[in-house]
Amino acid sequence: MSGLAATPEGVQGGDVAAQQHFAGLRQPWQSSHALLVIPVVLILVITVVDIRSPPDVHLGPALVIAPAITASFAGPRLTGFIGVLALAAQAIIGVFHGGLATTNHIVQLITLTVLSVLVVFMSAVRERRSRQLAQVRSVSEAAQHVLLWPLPERIGALRVACLYLAAEDEAQIGGDLYAATRIIGGVRIMIGDVRGKGLSAIGEAALLLGAFREAAHRHTSLPDLAAALEQSVTRYLADFEPVEETGERFATALLLELPDDDDITRIISCGHPPPLVLSPGRALTVPSLHPAPPLGIGETGPEGYTIDVLSFGAGDTLLLYTDGVIEARDADGDFYPFETRAAQWSDAGPESLLHHIQRDLLAHTHGRLEDDAALVALRRESDIHRRRHHGRVIHASGFGHSS
Q1: Counting Cβ atoms within 10 Å, is residue 257 exposed (0-12), middle (13-18) or buried (19+)?
Q2: For residue 190, what are the β-bridge partners?
Q3: Which of 143-157, 237-251, 329-343 shows the lowest mean pLDDT across its residues?
Q4: Most exposed residue of 15, 20, 168, 239, measured as fewest CB within 10 angstroms of its CB?
Q5: Residue among 167, 185, 187 at smallest CA distance from 376
Q6: Residue 231 contacts residue 221 (beta carbons within 8 Å)
Q7: For residues 376 and 346, what is the distance between their CA atoms, to the nearest angstrom?
Q8: Looking at residues 53-61, what average pLDDT do you find?
Q9: How far is residue 268 from each of residues 222, 286, 291, measured CA to CA in Å?
Q10: In whole angstroms, what is the distance from residue 50 CA to residue 206 CA?
Q11: The 3-state secondary structure of 35-49, one letter per residue
Q12: Which residues pair with residue 308 across a beta bridge?
C-alpha cells in the first residue's frame, strides 16, 4: 500500500517547513526595514542642509529622491510612509525659509505630493506584477513536476542525473522531455524533443510522455514501442494540429533499453541525435545509429525501426541530450563544442558531469539559450553495486518500492 503515514517525524517535518516558510516571509520584511535607513537619513540630511543654506538655495525638490529610492526595495505602504516624511520635511524647510504661505513653497509641496503619489502608484503596480510573476512561476513549477517527473537518482544498476534548461524566461518546462521506467529485466528510457520551444510545446510533450509511460510496459520490443509512440503522436496531430501547420509538427526521440544482466544498451533513434558514451580516461565514443524518421512524420510500423546495440559496461557513462545543447551558440555564432567539453569530465559522476556542462554551456551562451536543452547522464555501476540494488524496482514516476 503506497502513501504517506502521519508519523510524529512527519508532523515535526511539517513544523520545520512552516517555520522555514514564515522565516522566508520575514526576511524580505526585515531587509526592507533595514534599507529604510537610507531614505530616512537622506531626508534628514537634505532638510538640515537646506535649513542652513542661504535663502536663494532650494534643496527641497531633492526630497522626492527618498520615496523613489524606497520604491526600489519596498511596497507601496512603506513608499507612501517615506513620501509623507518627505512632505513633512518640506513643510519644516518652508517654515524656516519665509513660511509655508510663499508661492515657492506651495508649489514645491504640491509638486512633491504629486510625484510621491506617482511613485507610490508605480510601486503598487510593481508589487502586483511581482505577485503575478510569482504565481506564474508556481504554476510553471507545478506543471513541470506533473508532466516532467524527476528521474530517480538510481534505477537498478544505473546512477541517474538529469538537467533541464528552458529557453523562455520564467519557464520551467518546454518542448524537451525525458522519462524512465523499470521493466522486467531492465530499464527503458526516452529522451525527446518536440518541435518548438517553451510553453507552446507543452501539449505535444505531455502526450509523448504519457504515451511512453503507458506503452513501455505493454510492448516487449523496442520497435513495437516506437511504432506505438508514432501512432499516438499521429493521432494527436490529426485531431489538434492547425491546418496551416500540417506536416510541420513532429517530435524526435531516442529510445533506450538497458538490460540488467548484460553490459549493452539497445537504442532506436527517431531522428534524434546519438548519445555519447564516456569511459574513464577521457575516452569518448559517438555511435553511428540508423535513425528512423521523427515521430509524427509518417506512419511507421515496427519493421521500419532498426535497433542499434552499444557496449555500455561498468564505469561507463551514457550521456543523452537534445539539440538545444549542440546548437547553442556564443556571441560570435560558434556552436557549443559539446563532445570536446564532455570528454574533459568523463571521470565525473552523473551529477557532477551535468553540473560542469550546465555551467560551461551557460558561460558559452552568456546565460541565454535560444532553444530548450535537456540532458540525462546514466552511469552503470559495478557488479557489487548491481547486486546490492538488485531487489529495488523503480517506476517512471521516480518513486521506489521494495520488492
Answers
A1: buried
A2: 179, 255
A3: 237-251
A4: 239
A5: 187
A6: no
A7: 14
A8: 79
A9: 7, 15, 7
A10: 65
A11: HCHHHHHHHHHHHHH
A12: 267
The C-alpha cell at 121 is 502608484
- Which residue do the cell numbers 512632505 mark? 87
What pLDDT, on the 0 to 100 scale, is given for residue 379? Answer: 95
CA angle 315, 318, 321 (to 5 degrees): 155
Name the one residue in this structure whose C-alpha cell is 534628514.
44
Q: What is the mean pLDDT of residues 362-366?
A: 94
Backbone angles phi, psi at 2, to 5 degrees: -90, 160
pLDDT category, 168, cuts 50, 70, 90? low
94 vs 60: CA distance, rounded Å: 9
What are the two backbone dihedrals, phi and then psi, of residue 282, each rounded to the nearest 5 degrees? 60, 30
Q: How far apart are the C-alpha atoms of 79 and 65, rounded to whole Å?
A: 11
- Amino acid at site 31: S
